[in-house]
């Protein structure tokens, strides 16, 4: 997730950088053990489904087409999917089983993993398996454990985003599980959301499977079609039932999760998009693209978006370019990802330097809990010398061109004046050119009042090479392809 840089961590500084290896990633042997354990749990659920269908031999043979994926517990999901296969071809049932993979456990595992990784794009397959083991192969319970473990604040049962993700995840899972009627099964589950309680009770006793078959047959269309439109409000019921089942689920979290950093980088990316939207377009294309990509980090004494704007304007005003810059029409995605990755390590280094009891994993979880807003925490309300030391660790970790200067500036930034200027211009609106000029004058004068030298130095020849190597390292650390030196070079 993040590695402590021994050479840079001098004195009280704790400077973190990209890990040499994927910290927290399980070994191949550990992954195979988790997969085997999950297959055993699925096999147990299949045995329970066999017991329920034992008195109905005509239906039992359809269990080979079943899957654990669904909106109820794993056993009920298997029974319902088997009954759906029977409802799709009630006469002979031959078409439902032709070419079907009889390895129910493996197909269910593939479907469950596809469900979680589709619902949570930042999850890797092996992480999904670990959450499913904790949830006893229950897909919605596993999803709730992920939400709790990763502090996913945007998750709202019944919201449009959650409903859309649930529908897509169900369809992808059914395809991955190789069910003979994937689209139909996903549609049936969505159609029956409002009557899940009744369906769950009917499956538990299974006295009259004919009634369930009749219900499923009515819900099964002749051709694949989308689920009915009026079911959005009923999609909250599956999560309520899952909450009841999750009371007995394990609550052990997966520490040092590799994808936690990807979640945090995604959050940071959103803040940079907001900052770009607030900067005046003309000035951004002609001047501030350089300072944003080199020094526009999201750590500081304000909220993340304000920090990006303040750091960008301050660096441009204090260390202007040596020559005229060309107008930039497009901001490269890889260049933006580089400053985002550097901001991440700066934030982690700031927290770990300020609080010696924190490790990198705890720092990242803290950042997710607080939406990266250091201004709302005790970390930005301590002694100025301690803050400057923490900001210096952040600047070193983020490869700021002038780490000492930035640490001194952020430690003594004139907060009320800056916030007053931004508030007068509109908290969410695009800044005017006049406001940017006033901010530049205020920030540069605040920095000069600290007595630090602002003499501009000629860039050394090695800097360009260092910048390219840093881009490659940061790109590799977030799993992206390296950009060519010609395209990644900053003006």
Automatic annotation (TrEMBL):
Family annotation (Pfam families): PIR2-like_helical
Record domain PIR2-like helical: where: 60-145, 267-376
Membrane-traversing stretches: none
InterPro entries: PIR2-like_helical
The name this protein goes by in its record: PIR2-like helical domain-containing protein
Organism in which the protein naturally occurs: Triticum turgidum subsp. durum (Durum wheat)
């Amino acid at each position: 997730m993040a590695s402590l840089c021994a050479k840079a961590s001098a004195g009280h500084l704790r400077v973190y950088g990209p890990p040499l290896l994927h910290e927290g990633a399980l070994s191949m042997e550990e992954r195979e053990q988790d997969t085997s354990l999950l297959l055993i749990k699925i096999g147990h659920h299949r045995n329970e489904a066999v017991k329920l269908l034992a008195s109905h031999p005509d239906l039992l043979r359809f269990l080979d087409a079943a899957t654990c994926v669904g909106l109820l517990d794993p056993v009920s999901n298997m029974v319902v999917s088997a009954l759906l296969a029977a409802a799709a071809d009630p006469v002979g049932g031959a078409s439902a089983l032709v070419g079907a993979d009889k390895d129910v456990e493996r197909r269910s595992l593939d479907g469950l993993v596809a469900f979680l990784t589709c619902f949570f794009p930042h999850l890797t397959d092996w992480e999904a398996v670990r959450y499913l083991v904790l949830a006893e192969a229950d897909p919605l319970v596993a999803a709730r454990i992920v939400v709790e473990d990763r502090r996913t604040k945007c998750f709202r049962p019944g919201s449009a985003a959650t409903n859309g993700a649930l529908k897509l995840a169900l369809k992808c899972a059914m395809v991955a599980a190789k069910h003979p009627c994937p689209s139909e099964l996903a549609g049936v589950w969505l159609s029956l959301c409002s009557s899940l309680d009744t369906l769950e009770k009917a499956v538990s006793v299974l006295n009259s499977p004919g009634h369930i078959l009749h219900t499923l047959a009515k819900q099964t269309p002749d051709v694949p079609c989308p689920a009915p439109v009026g079911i959005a409000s009923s999609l909250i019921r599956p999560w309520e039932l899952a909450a009841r089942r999750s009371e007995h689920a394990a609550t052990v979290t997966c520490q040092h999760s590799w994808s936690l950093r990807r979640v945090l980088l995604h959050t940071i990316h959103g803040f940079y998009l907001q900052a770009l939207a607030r900067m005046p377009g003309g000035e951004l294309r002609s001047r501030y693209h350089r300072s944003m990509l080199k020094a526009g980090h999201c750590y500081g004494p304000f909220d993340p978006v304000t920090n990006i704007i303040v750091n960008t304007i301050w660096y441009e005003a204090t260390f202007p370019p040596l020559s005229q810059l060309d107008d930039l029409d497009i901001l490269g995605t890889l260049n933006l990802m580089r400053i985002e990755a550097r901001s991440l390590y700066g934030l982690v280094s700031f927290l770990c330097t300020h609080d010696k009891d924190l490790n990198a994993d705890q720092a990242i979880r803290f950042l997710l809990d607080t939406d990266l807003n250091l201004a709302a925490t005790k970390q930005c309300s301590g002694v100025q010398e301690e803050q400057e030391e923490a900001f210096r660790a952040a600047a070193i970790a983020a490869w700021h061109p002038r780490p000492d200067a930035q640490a001194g500036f952020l430690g003594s930034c004139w907060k009320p004046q800056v916030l007053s200027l931004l508030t007068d211009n509109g908290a969410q609106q695009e800044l005017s050119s006049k406001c940017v000029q006033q901010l530049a004058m205020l920030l540069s004068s605040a920095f000069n009042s600290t007595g630090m030298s602002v003499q501009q130095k000629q860039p050394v020849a090695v800097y360009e090479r260092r910048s390219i190597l840093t881009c490659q390292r940061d790109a590799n650390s977030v799993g992206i392809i390296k950009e060519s030196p010609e395209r990644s070079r900053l003006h």
